[in-house]
Design brief:
12 strands, 329 residues, TIM Barrel
Length: 329
């Protein structure tokens, strides 16, 4: 009988051997999510005893400072060591003055966390959009967001956050020169040791919709396309990141995450800085909604998307699922 190349004995290579048993699969797994790599976003608002669920983000809450402290402490007990703070001020104005008020909501929340939760790492999102009456990430001149006048306010915001005790400054406004302006202001104020995690590559994404519910930060006119990036552009993403590296960024972020895995990978290959990716509100809401309808297995989809983000090259992931992930691990 003629020897057939497809007979069993000729099948030397069998990838299935390494999938044969769970312990072998664990042994050869290339990508792991660990609690150390996760950053948990929290939304802090005025009042006391407030814990208000965000309509489009089940499981995510606006919390007053007292509740924030409890939530951060609980997350820390579960294994989360880093949080990023977003603030909902009581009053908004044209210049977003609540962002750089030393008694602002994020500043007070940061002080409370630093006093009451030992060794929690506080990252401050540094932007004006939650504090401006028009909801844009900078001040307005001639109907558009004015770049250079905004830099001064963003830098003041960063310094006031550092004074309150923030460990990392994370500017998210996509203003040209924001990283350089923040670095200079932090250094001048004696915060040479405070690092900058730049939202260097931030797309003008429809996936931010639920966040704007959570942070009450939807622009009141127009949209953010004159400062956030066009989702169609990849080369421009590297240009944005180059500029932030040159201005002194310590870490780079890509946002959103799952629809931009190619960008995460390109950033990973090109830079030696740590790369963060933000699994944004719309990514979270999509998974939640399908899960609540019983259409997908939430835990598995959550882990699969986060693993993909890590596999693409993210060192750190910002995710509303952080607490659920550490429970799962
Ligand atoms: C704005 C900001 C946004 C997010 C964080 N900070 C987006 C925006 O409104 O443009 C989005 C986060 C999310 O969707 O989870 N500086
Ligand atoms: Zn903003």
């Amino acid at each position: 009988m003629a020897l057939n190349v497809f007979t069993m004995t000729n099948l030397v290579h069998r990838p299935r051997r390494l999938r044969h048993h769970g312990i072998i699969r664990n042994l050869v797994r290339e990508t792991q999510i660990t609690p150390n790599n996760l950053i948990y976003p929290l939304f802090v608002c005025a009042g006391e005893g407030v814990r208000r669920e965000v309509r489009s983000m089940p499981g995510v809450f606006n919390v007053s400072i007292d509740e924030l402290v409890k939530e951060a402490a609980a997350a820390q007990r579960e294994g989360i060591s880093s949080i990023i703070l977003f603030g909902l001020p009581e009053h908004k104005d044209e210049e977003g003055s609540g962002a750089y008020d030393e008694d602002g909501i994020v500043q007070r929340a940061t002080k409370a966390l630093k006093e009451e939760v030992k060794d929690i790492l506080v990252i401050a999102d540094t932007c004006l959009c939650e504090y401006t009456s028009h909801g844009h990430c900078g001040t307005i001149a001639d109907g558009d967001v004015a770049n250079d006048p905004s830099l001064d306010l963003i830098a003041r915001t960063a310094v006031s956050q550092a004074q309150a005790g923030a460990d990392i400054i994370a500017p998210s406004g996509m203003m040209d020169g924001m990283v350089g302006a923040i670095r200079a202001a932090l250094d001048a104020a004696g915060f040479t040791h405070i690092s900058i995690l730049s939202y260097a590559i931030k797309y003008a994404s429809a996936y931010y919709g639920p966040f704007r519910d959570a942070a009450d930060s939807a622009p009141q006119f127009g949209d953010r396309r004159s400062y956030q990036m066009d989702p169609a552009n990849a080369r421009e993403a590297l240009r944005e990141a180059d500029l932030d590296v040159a201005q002194g960024a310590d870490m780079l972020m890509v946002k959103p995450a799952l629809p931009y895995l190619d960008i995460i990978k390109a950033a990973r290959e090109r830079y030696n800085l740590p790369i963060a990716a933000y699994q944004v509100s719309g990514e979270y809401a999509q998974i939640k909604a399908a899960a609540m309808n019983g259409w997908i297995d939430e835990e598995r989809v959550m882990m699969e998307s986060l693993t993909s983000i890590k596999r693409a090259g993210a060192d750190m992931i910002l995710t509303y699922y952080a607490r659920e992930v550490v429970k799962h691990l």
